[in-house]
Amino acid sequence: MAYSSIDSVFVKQYADTFVALLEQKESKLLSTVTNIGAVTGTSFTVNEMGTLGDDFSALTRFGETQYSDASFASRLAVMNDFPSFTRYAPQDIYKLKASIQDPLLQRLHAKWNRKVDSVVYNALIGNAARKEVGTDTYTNVALPASQILGDVATSITKQLLIDIRTKFMENECDEDIYVTYNADLLNALLADTTLTSADYLAGQMLQRGEISNFLGFNWVHYEGIKAVDGLSATGVAYTRSSVEVGMNTIEGLAINQVETLNRSYSIGHIEAIGAVRTDEKRVVAFNFKV
């Protein structure tokens, strides 16, 4: 037999780890809103108190006391349950050099964090259930047009960001303001020559490749603001108190064997989450073309 047959006994070195494809792993938005923790019940409420106004009546000697009454309302966040499971077969374990359990656990954790951000984001820009009566009759309150700036057909501009800052000032907001941005918004700002001239802040932005504290905002990177068609995005500026979120762990992350499926392994957890916007004036949505 010819020496060239040595090719038949060459070996391959098989990988003993998995390279996880890129995805968002940690929650970007949960730490920027009010997390009330565990909830007992199918929902939770937020109590709202209105202003007393600015009117003062003239004091009349021995006259009747004039009162200014506050308005009250209640907002409702409905808790929703979300199961998240994956699996693997026991007969596949001995055929692998790489451990499959830990990477799958990490993937499930990352998946849930993205769901949390989706719930928070939709609470910020979506409808809020609100009532002003004793009965449980809630009306969906949309974010007012006055709190939505920009246009899906127009690229982001500095003026739009200034308008957002101005809107919070008009609303007498003295809280820290968070603003979501994605890669498209970052690209637009870093490519703006008026921002990247001799300005120290812009220089820091270019060095780090991120936005940290521009226009007095706390910038939060979240790619979930882009529309499904990829042609536009809806960013959102908000305060920590603008959304309340509740979360329950129904069944913690665990690995179990399923007898009825040939002892295959089930990995997963069941979580519950609900969120509601507390005040429309604490939120400004902005649309822009990408």
Largest sheet: 5 strands, mixed
**Overall 3D form:** flat
Radius of gyration: 26 Å
Q: Kindly estimate the percentage of residues that lie in beta strands according to DSSP.
A: 25-35%
Low-confidence stretches: none
* Count of DSSP-assigned helices: 4
Describe the strand arrangement of the main beta sheet, using strand numbers.
7-13-10-8-9
Can you give the helix content as a percent range?
10-25%
Q: Please state the structural category.
A: alpha+beta
Report how far the terminal alpha carbons are from each other. 65 Å
Order of helices and strands: EEEEHEEEHEHHEEEEE
DSSP summary, beta strand count: 13
Q: Mean pLDDT across all residues, rounded? A: 92
Task: Describe the model.
The chain is an alpha+beta fold. It is 19% helix and 33% strand. The protein has helices spanning 101-125, 158-170, 183-190, 200-208, and strands at residues 34-37, 43-49, 72-78, 80-88, 128-131, 139-141, 148-155, 177-181, 218-221, 232-239, 243-258, 264-277, 283-289. The strands form 3 sheets. It has a 5-stranded mixed sheet, sandwiched between helices. A 4-stranded mixed sheet has the order 1-11-12-4, covered by helices on one side. Strand 11 (243-258) and strand 12 (264-277) form a beta hairpin. The model has no long low-confidence stretch (mean pLDDT 92).
Summarize this structure briefly.
With about 290 residues, this protein is an alpha+beta fold. Helices cover about 20% and strands about 35% of the residues.
